[in-house]
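Hi P.,

Sorry for the delay on this. The queue was packed all week, but I finally got your sequence through. Input first:
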Amino acid sequence: MSPNTCWRCRIFRAEKNGISSKVSLEEVLQWSQSFEKLVTSKYGPMIYKTYLKTEHSDENIDFWLACEAYKKITSQRKRVSMARKLFTSYIQPQAPNEVNIDSPVRNEIIRNIQEPTQSCFDEAQRIIYMHMERDSYPRFLESQFYQKLKHSLQTNGNNAMVN
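Then the structure:
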């Protein structure tokens, strides 16, 4: 396999990424309309994460998605557990996947981590969303990564993506 098709394998290998069907041209084209359409689409977050890995910034989408899941937790016990995981993975200084947030936001999370609320990561999530929307999203749209995906679907249809 040539290096030029390697990215397709990483994206569309169903058994590795849990994708049961292929991404559509319609979905890929919608991603260029807004960052929100990208991160709320079926395959957008996973494909965007694959791109972010090339920039060594995939912790941003991981954190954003983890916050989305966190907000849906109803059990206080599970919320406390998940809040601690988010804190140790993304928020605390020198965390393995530390995200770029300012000190006041970090300090507010530190103050609230003992009794976390559903919204205790909202400001950090908003900042990370803004970073991605302003910085990496425009580069994603201009990247060979996105352009090749779009072009292959436009010229060959979804059949071009078969493993």
